[in-house]
Amino acid sequence: MQEIARGITPASQGKEHWQELQSMVREIAEKIETFEEIEEMRVLTLGKKSEIAEAMKRLGQVPVDHRKAIAQVLNYIKEDTSKIIEERAGLLKKAALNARLEQEKIDVTLSPRPAAQGTVHPISQTMEEMIAIFSDMGFAVAEGPEIEDDFHNFTALNFPPEHPARQMHDTFYLPDVPGKTGDEAKRLLRTHTSTVQVHVMKNQKPSIRVIIPGRTFRSDYDMTHTPMFHQMEGLLIDKATHMGHLKGCLIEFCKRFFEVETLGTRFRPSFFPFTEPSAEMDIGCSRAGGELKIGEGEDWLEILGCGMVHPNVLKNCGIDPEEYQGFAFGMGVERVAMLKYGIPDLRTFFESDLRWLKHYGFGPMDQPNPALS
Ligand code: DAH
User: Is residue 69 a contact partner of residue 9, using CB atoms and an 8 Å limit?
Assistant: First the structure.
């Protein structure tokens, strides 16, 4: 820059002035430490009110023979100043990046934080425990659809049309199947897993021995009800099956599930459209001092519904009741989980609160850090 400036002197300023200005620019630029200062300098040296801009404006007053040469010098100074500023800005950027890298450097000698490991949800765990016990007794797991028709949820299970039990289930109905009318058009979210009994009996020849874990739906919400909940259904069909088999199977299950060998049990007569006779099973408990203790005391707690499969149900599913008999049972998974683990409010199962899960021993456990052991 200086070489060019040396030979040409703008009319308004001496060449020393511009040389001086440029070395000042360099000197100042070298001391700049922040991006704000860089910007300030850019405005002062190259902005509209800068000395260079002013000199450019005055070019018109310069005699024509000098004008071109002076314009060249001014442009050169402009470019050079801009270069100095850009260089400094580049340096500052690099320094800032280095500082960040230095700060964010990963210390590989630091041992990793313990990883939280997920665990099985209490409902899934309870279902697995139940399945394990029934598997030992020779039951296989069967599944069926959650969206059902009126036939599988009610009619095939011997719920007469307009029977009040249909209303008792607080059913979630879905829009009718297009092009169909009456019961055929009705689609619903299954209100119990008993529907799968029908699918199994229609598709499988006896003997049948299945348990059916699954989601069920009813329009209900309080401490002991949620609109979605889980049931475990059981179905056994064979020749000469009787109530003694039903009782033996369920007593054995309850003793193992609640881990009380001396657990008291009793069966009370009840009513379900799909079983005859029907019963409800209670287990022995104590409620002394407001605390529920299973397997102690003189009190009773209802645990499930069961019975001998109604001949009409067998017929509806293509099984001859003269040849085969069977028993069925159904229980709420949340209910037995609450009893086993002492959980008072069913809704909390579905709130995904890790503190709650941890409190009942289900939450993710911090794994011990292998690097530290
Ligand atoms: N489906 C019944 C309910 O949701 C439970 C039940 C009772 C199932 C008796 C059965 C049974 O298989 O035999 O309330």
Answer: no
